[in-house]
Amino acid sequence: MQRKTGPELLDEDVGTTQEIAASLADLRHINNWFGGTCTTISLLRKVAFAGTSRQLSVLEVGAGAGDVPLAARKAVAREGVELLVTLLDRAQSHLPAHGPASIAADALHLPFVDDAFDVVSSSLLFHHFEPDVVRQFVDEALRVCRRAVLINDIVRSRIHLGLVYLGLPLFRSRLTWHDAPASVRRAYTADEIRALLSQLPARQVDTTRHFLYRIGVLVWK
C-alpha cells in the first residue's frame, strides 16, 4: 500500500465550531478505545523509570484538546510519577479553554529555550510531516527536550484502513469520516519510520509496536 498524502479537514479548519468540537471528541474516543492513550502512557512510564526523578515536564505538540497527555498524567500518578503538562497546538481553537498551560505555535519553530522540558511528546502528528520535514521536526523537539522525544502514531496498512472504514459508524463528525482514512493513507510503515529516524546523528531510537497498528518511538537525548 503506497503512502498517499492528502489534506485532513481538521488541519484545514474546515467545518463549523460544532463540527470541529465533534471531531476533537472523536479523536479522544479513538485514542481511548484503540490504543493511542495506552501507547503514550507506556512510553512516558519508560522515560520516568529510566531516570532518578519521578517528575517529568512534558510538552505535548499538536495537542488538540490535550486528552492524551492529561489521561497519561492521571494514569502514571498512581505509580508515583508526576507529569507537568504543557499543551501546544497550531490552532488556539483546538486547545482547551481551561486546564494546563497551553500555547498556539508552530511545531517546527517551538517558542521555548533549549532543554525547556524533560519530554517533547506528540500523538497522531508525525504522519502529517513529509519525509523532508521529519528531520526538522525531530531536531527541533530534541533542542527543546532534556531527556527524550516521544512519538505516538499509527502504521499504514490495508488491514488497518479496512478496520477504520468498519469503525466509522462509531463516530459522529463528518470531519472524522474523512480524516480517519486519510490519516492511515498518509501514515508511514514501521520500517519507513525507522529509516527516517536512522538519519539522525548518533541518537538512540527505540521503537515499539502497540495495540491496533500504533507505533511508539523514543528518541533519546
Structure characterization notes:
- This protein has a single domain, classed as Vaccinia Virus protein VP39 (Rossmann fold), CATH 3.40.50.
- The chain is built from seven helices and seven strands.
- It is of the alpha/beta class and 221 residues long.
- It is globular, with a radius of gyration of 16 Å.
What's a quick, concise take on this entry?
With about 220 residues, the protein is an alpha/beta fold. It contains seven helices and seven strands; from the N terminus they run H-H-E-H-E-E-E-H-E-H-H-H-E-E.
As a percent range, the share of helical residues equals 25-40%
Mean pLDDT: 96
The CA-CA distance between the termini, in Å, is 33 Å
The CATH topology is Rossmann fold
| Total domain modules | 1
* Topology as a string of helices (H) and strands (E): HHEHEEEHEHHHEE
Task: Report the structural category.
Answer: alpha/beta
What is the approximate shape? globular
CATH architecture: 3-Layer(aba) Sandwich
- Give the radius of gyration: 16 Å
Identify the strand order in the major beta sheet. Answer: 3-2-1-4-5-7-6
Low-confidence stretches: none
Work out the strand percent: 15-25%
Relevant CATH superfamily: Vaccinia Virus protein VP39
Keywords:
alpha/beta; 22% strand; 221 residues; 7 strands; Rossmann fold
Layout of secondary structure:
Elements: H1 17-33, H2 36-50, E1 55-61, H3 67-77, E2 82-89, E3 101-104, E4 117-123, H4 131-144, E5 145-154, H5 158-167, H6 174-186, H7 190-197, E6 205-210, E7 214-220
Parallel strand pairs: 1-2, 1-4, 2-3, 4-5
Antiparallel strand pairs: 5-7, 6-7
Helix pairs in contact: 2-3, 5-6
